[in-house]
Structure formats: C-alpha cells, structure tokens
C-alpha cells in the first residue's frame, strides 16, 4: 500500500482503494471503494464509501469475514438498490439512444446501509471525510475529501486518471442541448471539469483517482485535462455531421480555424426515389432496387407506387447498416416483397441475430440476408453495376454500395457522411481511428472511387467532396488519433474510444436450466504489437465451465483462458458454461474478468443468459 499520511493509505488493486484507519479507536478501518484482495491488506473493514456504482469500484466486499457497512452516493441509489432491474426487459438491449449510466454496472442489486448527500461529513477517529457531489464519469458520482494527519486527500473516482487524462472517453457520451445521449460525444466534458474544479476549491494536497497514480499537482493536472478536452472537441466538430444537422447548436464554431467547409450539394437524379431513410434506384424497365426500410409506412408507399404504375416491381434490397430507423420495417418489407436481400457481412451478422449484440440503436427485428458480398464484389442489376464495400463509417457495422450507370457513380453511404463531414457523434458506434480503419478507410475508398454523388439516408439531396476535402478529413483523423492517444492512458486511442474492444458473443441468449451455453469473449487488439489477455467467467454458485471449447488453452482448473492476439487484429476465447438444473428462471448477467496486457480490469464485460425451466 502507498502511504498518504500516517493513517491514510492507498491500496492499488483493480481500482485504487482509500484505506483510512481510526487513530483513536484501535485501528478500525474505513475504505473508499473496494477491490478484490484488499481484505488481505487490511484484514477487516467497518465501513466502505463508494464513489460510484460500477463493478470495478464494488468488487471484494464478499471477501470480508464480516461484511462492512456500505454507503453510496444518494444520487446513484437506483444503481445500487435496483441494479437487477437494469438487465431486465428489451429496453436493456434494444433501441438504446439514452444509455446512462454506462456499463460496467452492477449485475446484482446491493444492500446499502446509508446514502450520502453532497456536503455530508463523516468523522472517523479524528479524521474528517467530506462527501462532494462530482458528476461527470457517472451522473451521480461522489468524491471524498479526507483531512487526516494534516494532509488533505481527494478521492475522485474516475473523474480523472492522471495529468490531462481520463480512464476512458466513451463514458463521457451524454446528452446536452436537445440531444439524446446518442448524439452527445464528449458531452460530459464541461460537467466533468466543473466537478474537478469544485474539488480543487478544497485545495487538496493529493488527488487519488480510481485508476492511475496519486496526483500531487492537482490544479495543473486538471488544467491540462480541460485544455486537451477542448482541443479534442474542436477537432471532432471541425468535420462533423452535426454541423449539418444542428447548425444552431454549433454556431459558435462558425468560421473556426481548421474547420472543413461544407461539401457541394447536388440535384437528385430523376431515377431515384426517397422516403424516410430509404433510397430506391429505378431501372429503365420500371424495376426498383431498394435500400433500407425503417417503418412499415415505407412498405405501404411502395405498394401504392406499384399500384399506380410508377414502378413495376421491386427486384432487389440492400441494408446499409443495422440501426433501428433503417431496419425496423425490414421483416414486413421481406414478407410483402419476397426479393433477394444483400448486406455486407458485418451488417448481415447483426441483422440476422440482433440478440447477440448490445450496440446503439439496435432493433430486435430479425432480417433475412440472401447475399453477403465480399468487400469489392460486384454484380449486375439491369443497366447498373453494383459494388459492395465494407464501409465502417457512422458505425463499424456498416456497408457502402456503389451504383454505376447512366454516366454516374452513385455512392450510397448510409448515414456515414453529410455535407459537413463525418457522422461520428456516438463512441459506442465504434468509430475507430488509425490508418486503413474506420473513417480513414472510408475516405481512402471515396478518394479512389471518385463518386459523382454521395447519398445519406437522412439528407434529402446528394452531395460530393473534393479530393482536397477528403484529404483534409484524413489529416484531421490523424490529428485526432494523436490527441485522443494523449487523453486516454492506453496503448492506442481506440481503447479509450471503443467500448466494444472486449465484447461477448452472443451478448444475450436463451438457454434451458440443466443445459450448456457457449459464449465467446472477443478481444480487439488495438495495439501496435501482439497482446496477451486472460479471461475468466465469474459464475454463480453451482455453475461450471467445460474445458477446451474450440481448442482454447484453458488454465486455473478450467476457469480462465489465456489468448495471444496479433497486432491490430481480433482474437478471442470461447467458453461452454453448464447451467445447474435447479437454476432460477430469470435473466442472469455473467461477468467476465479480463486482464489485458498485464492490466487487471476486473469484471470488465458481461453476457446475458435468459434461463428457462421446463
């Protein structure tokens, strides 16, 4: 343990745990947060004060012979007492536009002995512990200011990691103005810095984050973080689709240096139709090739057009990406128009089995996909050539379709671009940074294809970018990669931006009690060299893991797998779990403990099993 003062120390586990001993009462101990293994360092504890309700803050309580009394922020009462409700119902997985509090949440409700309000003070054997409301990482987070032995320490949870750094960027996704969380990239930045400034008013001698080393020059650390967040946000807005959709919100950036001018807007070719998020290409023979179907209203409209003779029939269907406003109506469309459906393989994987995912704007509607063309694969449709591309723009699970004919090269880019730039306002969509990935891949492809028209499903008219604009956006992405790399303390910026670099597949599944369930934990190694990851399922009593599924090397009595993933690639370990025959019929989250590149992340990700009984 690291000493802060005579009676105040920091236990460095999955999270930093404050350890305050009563100097006047024979060594009773109060903890700030908890971690597995802390019991070995302190023996016993009488009280635990939690900064916020995430799994990595609350592990280790069950290791004490006598459970400490637990206190939590009053503003996060539901995160503790009603945690089990978070996992029930379709709203826990589908149509996620407002997704705070963000994972990793408690998988089971927790008994809390008391809740602390802003300004509450706890006296602990001559030391004072002040509770200070500090939203930012979570909406109801709390920091604790401790005066002990003439030293003032601030335990700030995950507000800050180190000088100029935060533990992750994706947890800062939050609504502002009239947005949902979905549109709120870096939306907590002002709130988070405001909370840290509030802590600084107490003039702490040391600031102790949940992750990262204690910080002695707190003011300089916060100033650097504020500076970096503003720079990152400016570089995000500089070529963002939000400038097109919401000009009134981002007017302060008008004319800002280094912000890309809007692309040229064009007239819509006469052989195209648009309704909602659907584009349709009309052939000279009257046939239609349709892209996306967000509602049954789209189906009704096409039937009216067919009845009126405006089109003869529909002979092809393409799905740009999985978002609900593009696929909610697909089952009805496929029922009424039994036509071949195409989708890029990454898109097809989501729309065919949506229950396997937990990503933004996910629809529970299952779609049939008849053709999954490889990247760059072409086919003929009447007088047009169509070419499918892996197009990880607005979301990683996205395809682009180039339609060539009638002297034009039409790129249907889903929701990936508007005339003002890139549609990357939701971190959970997985907008990865780096050469040849994410938007850099899309921009490089567009510069090579040189489309005459670019189409967005939410923009009424097509547009196009100059080669200079495409290169400017690529340069901006390289700048972001460096800036976000400084902001997040990982081997690459994508670890801080991408909440799905570790994910469970399937995310949710239904299984009978007494049977087995297979779960693969997928690891995306964003680093420039190979990585080693240890993965261990944390199972309810009576459950067990079967060994050697998919020839994965399994260690520690069949409880943990160790994998090695090459640089910039995806690896994983698969587990087969045996569910006891007497298991309760309920939705059961199964956390997975992950150690990646030597960094212990605790119960970092989870899968869901819906247990049924005969």
Class inferred from helices and paired strands: alpha+beta
Q: Given the C-alpha coordinates, what overall shape results?
A: globular
Radius of gyration, rounded?
26 Å
* Main sheet: strands, sense, barrel: 7 strands, mixed
Overall pLDDT confidence: 94
The level of helicity is 10-25%
Distance between the termini: 51 Å
Number of strands: 36
Are there runs of 5+ residues with pLDDT below 50, and where?
A: 550-558
Strand order of the largest sheet: 1-2-3-4-5-6-7
Beta-strand percentage range: 25-35%
User: Tally the helices: what do you get?
Assistant: 13
How would you describe the overall organization of this protein?
A hairpin with an 8-residue loop joins β9 and β10 (142-148). α4 runs antiparallel to α5 (218-237) and α11 (438-449) packs antiparallel against α12 (467-487). A seven-stranded mixed beta sheet has the order 1-2-3-4-5-6-7. The chain has a six-stranded mixed beta sheet with strand order 28-36-35-30-33-32, with no helix packed on it. It has a five-stranded mixed beta sheet with strand order 8-9-10-11-12. Helices cover 19% and strands 30% of the residues. The protein is built from 13 helices and 36 strands. It has 614 residues and is an alpha+beta fold. The model is unreliable at 550-558 (pLDDT under 50). The protein starts with a strand and ends with a strand.
């Amino acid at each position: 343990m690291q000493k802060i003062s005579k009676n105040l120390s920091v236990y460095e586990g999955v999270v930093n745990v404050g350890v305050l001993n009563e100097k006047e009462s024979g060594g009773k101990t109060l903890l700030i947060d908890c971690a597995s293994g802390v019991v070995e360092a302190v023996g016993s504890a009488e009280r635990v004060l939690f900064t916020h309700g995430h799994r990595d803050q609350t592990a280790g309580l069950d290791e004490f012979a006598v459970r400490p009394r637990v206190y939590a922020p009053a503003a996060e009462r539901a995160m503790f007492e009603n945690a089990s409700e978070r996992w029930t119902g379709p709203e826990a997985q589908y149509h996620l536009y407002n997704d705070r509090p963000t994972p990793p949440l408690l998988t089971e409700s927790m008994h809390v002995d008391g809740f602390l309000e802003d300004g509450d003070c706890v006296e602990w054997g001559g030391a004072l512990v002040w509770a200070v409301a500090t939203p930012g990482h979570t909406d109801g987070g709390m920091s604790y200011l401790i005066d002990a032995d003439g030293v003032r320490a601030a335990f700030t949870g995950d507000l800050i990691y180190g000088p100029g750094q935060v533990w992750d960027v994706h947890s800062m996704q939050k609504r502002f103005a009239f947005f949902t969380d979905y549109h709120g990239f870096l939306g907590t930045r002002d709130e988070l810095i405001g909370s840290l400034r509030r802590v600084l008013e107490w003039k702490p001698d040391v600031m102790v984050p949940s992750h990262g080393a204690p910080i002695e020059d707190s003011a300089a650390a916060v100033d650097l973080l504020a500076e970096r967040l503003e720079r990152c946000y400016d570089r995000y807005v500089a070529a963002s689709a939000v400038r097109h959709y919401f000009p009134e919100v981002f007017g302060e950036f008008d004319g800002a240096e280094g912000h890309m001018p809007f692309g040229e807007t064009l007239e819509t070719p006469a052989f195209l139709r648009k309704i909602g998020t659907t584009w349709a290409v009309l052939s000279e023979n009257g046939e239609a090739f349709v892209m996306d179907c967000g509602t049954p209203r789209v189906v009704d409209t096409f039937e009216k057009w067919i009845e009126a003779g405006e089109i003869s029939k529909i002979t092809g269907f393409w799905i740009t990406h999985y978002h609900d406003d593009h696929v909610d109506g697909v089952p009805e469309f496929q029922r009424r128009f039994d036509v071949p459906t195409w989708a890029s393989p990454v898109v097809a994987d989501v729309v065919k089995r949506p229950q396997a995912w937990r990503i933004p704007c996910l629809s529970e509607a299952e779609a049939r996909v008849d053709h999954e063309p490889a990247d760059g694969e072409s086919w003929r449709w009447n007088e047009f050539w169509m070419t499918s591309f892996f197009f990880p723009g607005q979301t990683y699970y996205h395809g682009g379709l180039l339609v060539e004919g009638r002297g034009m090269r039409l790129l249907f880019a889903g929701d990936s671009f508007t005339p003002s730039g890139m549609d990357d306002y939701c971190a959970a969509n997985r907008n990865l940074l780096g050469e040849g990935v994410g938007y850099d891949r899309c921009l490089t492809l567009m510069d090579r294809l040189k489309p005459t028209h670019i189409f967005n499903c939410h923009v009424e008219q097509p547009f196009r970018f100059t080669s200079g604009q495409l290169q400017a956006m690529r340069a901006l992405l390289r700048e972001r990669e460096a800036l976000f790399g400084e902001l997040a303390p990982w081997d690459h910026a994508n670890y801080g931006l991408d909440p799905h670099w570790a994910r469970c597949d399937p995310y949710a599944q239904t299984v009978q009690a007494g049977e087995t369930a297979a779960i693969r934990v997928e690891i995306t190694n964003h680093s420039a060299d190979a990585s080693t990851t240890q993965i261990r399922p944390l199972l309810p009593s009576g459950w067990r893991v079967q060994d050697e599924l998919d020839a994965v090397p399994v260690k520690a009595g069949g409880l943990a797998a160790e994998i090695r993933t090459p640089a910039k690639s995806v690896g994983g370990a698969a587990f087969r779990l045996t569910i006891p025959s007497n298991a309760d019929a309920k939705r059961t989250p199964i956390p997975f403990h992950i150690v990646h590149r030597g960094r212990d992340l605790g119960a970092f990700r989870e899968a869901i099993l819906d247990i049924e009984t005969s």
